[in-house]
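Sharing a chain and its predicted structure for anyone who wants a worked example. Both blocks are below, sequence first, tokens second.
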Amino acid sequence: MINIIYRLKSPKFFEEAIEEVNLDDVLVRPIYLSICQADQRYYQGSRPSEILARKLPMALIHEAVGEVVSDSKNIFKAGDKVVMIPNTPFGEDICRANYSKHSKFRGSGFDGFTSDLVSLNHDRLVKIPEDFNLKVSSFIELMTVAYQGIMKFSNINCVSKDRLGVWGDGNLGYITSLFLKVLYPDSKIIVFGKHSENLNLFSFADEIYMIHDIPDSLDIDHGFECVGSQASQSAIEQIIDLINPQGTINLFGVSEYPIPINTRMILEKGITVQGNSRSEREDFEGVVDILQDNPQLFSYLSKLITNICEVKSIDDLKLAFDKDYISKFGKTILKWEI
């Protein structure tokens, strides 16, 4: 079967490519896709030139839900709604697949989901209930990043988990704070940010502070850094200052450049620093369970949607990326009708 893939050939330039699709796997037609900051870095050409030269041309986007078209093994039925898992293991490893050197990631190591059809192994799909909001479900992958980091944090033996601080008032900070509130209902969730208009949306948090207006007496047991880029340096410094001895710092933000960290105070306080990236199947299943058990979360998560763009052509795809780029907050959702 012929399939059309829409690849980024060079910054801000998409092209069509025709390829045969593998009929032995599950064929999925994308319905809604969500643009991530990583997609924008490729589209804008802000990644280092050697990385762009190595990875392009490549189909973008790793956050998506779709509808099953066919399944050679009849595990999925035609019409089933599924969330697609971008992380793809190749070979065995002692570590989790999302940290394995043998894994590839769609929209980074190989083609993402901007195509007419996507062929996936059965274990790269998780069925979602019919009553799920598909626009919100399109960024379940981003939710799984927060979820897997929180699960790793849960396995650490800590002296106290009473006061959890989240740095970052963007999409990941919002989701991380929201999930912490669900998974740690007895803990106080404290959010730190620099955009008051964004922080106003964190109505579920117990306390909210602007990063330049924090009481001297405030402390936290553990910190979650969801800032990224060079701004993560000041966020990490602030976490180290406010965190209690033997707390943990959970890093989620991505930076293209090295970030200095005050190791003296990490040693003095006995702080554990934990890195978090991507996710795996069990995280997708965990997020689907959380959303099913807490349907009120869809109302909170829908507040992240700032743009819904119908994509019927490559020009529409470019316009969606341009619109997303100028948005200061939230998610741009693509209604895939190309």
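Comments welcome. The mean pLDDT is 96.
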